[in-house]
Amino acid sequence: MKVIKIDKNDWTRGIDKSRETYQLFGPVTDKNQSVFKQLGKDAYPEMGRTDTIMSPKSVLFPQTEKILTASLDESVENHHIMQMPETDTTPRAVIGIRPYDAKAVQLVKLNFDTPEYRDTYWCDAYEATTFVGLAVNQPSASDFSTSMGSGPFAEEGLDLLLVDLDDHYLAKVLTPKGETFLDGAGFNGTADTDASLKTIQGMKEAAEAAITSLVPTDKLKEKSLLDLHGAPFWEDTAFSCINCGTCTFVCPTCWCFDIQDETKGKSTSRFRNWDSCMSPLFTMHGSGHNPRGEKTQRVRQRFMHKLKYFLDKYDQGSMCVGCGRCVEKCPVNIDIRSICNTMNSYEPQK
Amino acid sequence: MNTYTKKIRELASNLLKEGKVDLVIGFKEGTVPMATAPGIARTPEEADGFVWDANCSLNLTNYLTNKKEKIGIIAKGCDSRSIVNHIIENKISRDQLHIIGVPCTGMVDKNKIRGLFEDEITEFKEEGDVIRVKTGAKELTIDKQEYLRGNCRTCMHRNPVIHDDLVAEPVVEQKLADPFKDVKAIEAMDADEKWNHFENLLSGCIRCYACRNACPLCYCPTCFVDEANPQWVGKGQDPTDIRTFHFLRAYHCAGRCTDCGACEDACPMDIKVRDFTRKLVKDSFEIYGWEAGLTLDQRPPLDTFKPEDPDDFIK
């Protein structure tokens, strides 16, 4: 295990140097809101910001992505034949990604990179990306990441973990990709590894202890899927839901998409757009049949998918990393922590 | 417990006890600071969960659409006007409703208050017009009236226009020299400035449709943006499609919008979508002398026809 010390006075220079090799993405303020974006030439990641409203999932999975194009001009060769557009798979680095968001990327990977299918667009982007994480020294009140298999200093899915120590960062090198990034940025200040790891361990324990939001998930696995599906609490849970897409769009693990064709003049393109199970149109059949025609069914789908179906299918925990974004942003305060609690403790009436 | 909360619980509980309604719709305490959750009570005991404070900003009329039950509903001034809309648009009948009116002193702009702090708000306490807000690092006492939402600052109908009970004596209505100052500022821009203003306004839109879905007017069974056959609007992040959604949604609210501000409250990206609807509120007022949702006895200007209409286009 190698730890590098980065003096904050060298930070800007290193970031600039890394631009020679990488397209950079990071947290920036856009109209008073903190979001993850590709950084322009003069933009630097705002490392001091607390959580971003939108997760960095769009770095690998843009909200709208062109996946195929074709010409409808019959005088052109291969007209009407869909082809992949040119995609940019040059190296990119996500600076300041939070540990729970990096964990989310790993969960999304289970869907996009399976033994049967490989989603070219997502996987190519993933392979091109270096994840430079930033540990969370002060978790927010709605952060329940330790309950969801992640945590403020969790390392899963990261190539580097930066730990903020006021005037410098300690960078824990987790993968060769991470090491390459540090080389590219010219960050090479050595640190006393043992002492640094000890410091980081102490801060990790303090941050984990600062998380007050604990959500039990221990019984979800043994619950009967059909019991939960038929449970009476969904009606009241769903009452206040206005069926907007906020929770699914701010969620770092929601990965459902919809395919749309758009034609202009003699050229046509196929796009995929983020979709939301909250929308009445979601998975609506061509026949007109809607498998989840009622609001309650849609709300149930969201929580069952995250906390039960995914768990049953992959046995790798919930499809929630406890970032707390949906808790903060839901206009009607539907709180996944309460629902998880209700599901975990549900006993069907005999 | 504040007197409003106490009275709301008492009235709601009695309605349920006496069997006058099947359920009451109100606000319940949220799970994070500055949040409230719309909720229902079906028993007098459940009515004890209702609360009232300056975070009850959503419009509960949204939950009335096409309901069949007999419903008690908590309504501040703007909500009551939306209820009037719902009744004249046949989305619910007056007989089905028992309206618990709340004379309102305004709801707070949560983002403006959050902007006062570097770190996360951990406590929000309201005592009359004084609000105490705490974070890990500091505590501030602020004057509620200075942190009202945009629509509450220009509101001239704080008292419910229709109600069966009132939780308190009516409050004094605001007198404003110019309620449409904000709209006039945009009207005064030249074409380029206007274009830039609205481009900038919409630049963060993620098309989650929270604004539409929080709006009590947006009850179409299938919204035009969701229509698949024919499909009117692209579904992606193309700016043209984003604009089309916002422009058309606003026009669908012309002469109906009560400026309740639920759209802005719900927006996760803090987009001031009322910049669109406010212009239509102003036009309705200036052209037709119309303020939406004030009376059950008159059809809204855009769904009536008068042979003596002075405008040429009709002849």
The percentage helix of chain B is 25-40%
Strand order of the largest sheet of chain A: 3-2-5-6-7-8-1-9
Beta-strand segment tally of chain B: 8
Strand proportion of chain A: 15-25%
Structural class of chain B: alpha/beta
Tell me, briefly, the overall form of chain B.
globular
Number of helices of chain B: 10
The gyration radius over C-alpha positions of chain A equals 22 Å
Morphology of chain A: globular
Number of strands of chain A: 11
Spell out the helices and strands of chain A N to C: EHEEEEHHEEEHEHHHHEEHHH
- List segments of chain B where confidence is low: pLDDT < 50 over at least 5 consecutive residues: none
Layout of helices and strands:
The complex is a heterodimer of chains A (350) and B (315).
Chain A: E1 2-7, H1 8-18, E2 23-30, E3 33-38, E4 64-71, E5 92-97, H2 99-112, H3 120-128, E6 129-134, E7 160-165, E8 168-173, H4 176-185, E9 189-190, H5 193-210, H6 225-229, H7 233-239, H8 246-250, E10 257-264, E11 267-274, H9 295-314, H10 325-329, H11 336-344
Parallel strand pairs in A: 2-5, 5-6, 6-7
Antiparallel strand pairs in A: 1-8, 1-9, 2-3, 4-11, 7-8, 10-11
Helix pairs in contact in A: 1-4, 7-9
Chain B: H1 3-17, E1 23-29, E2 36-41, E3 71-76, H2 77-88, E4 97-102, H3 110-114, E5 121-127, E6 130-135, E7 139-143, H4 150-153, E8 165-166, H5 181-187, H6 191-202, H7 210-214, H8 239-252, H9 262-266, H10 274-288
Parallel strand pairs in B: 1-3, 3-4, 4-8
Antiparallel strand pairs in B: 1-2, 5-6, 6-7
Description:
The complex is a heterodimer of chains A (350) and B (315). Helices cover 32% and strands 20% of the residues of chain A. With 350 residues, chain A is α/β, with parallel strands linked by helices. Chain A folds into two domains: 2-54 and 80-210, no CATH class; 225-344, no CATH class. The mean pLDDT of chain A is 95. Chain B folds into two domains: 3-109 and 148-305, no CATH class; 110-147, no CATH class. In chain B, strand 1 and strand 2 (36-41) form a beta hairpin. The longest helix of chain B has 15 residues, at 3-17. At the A-B interface, helix 8, strand 10 and helix 10 of A face strand 2 and helix 7 of B.
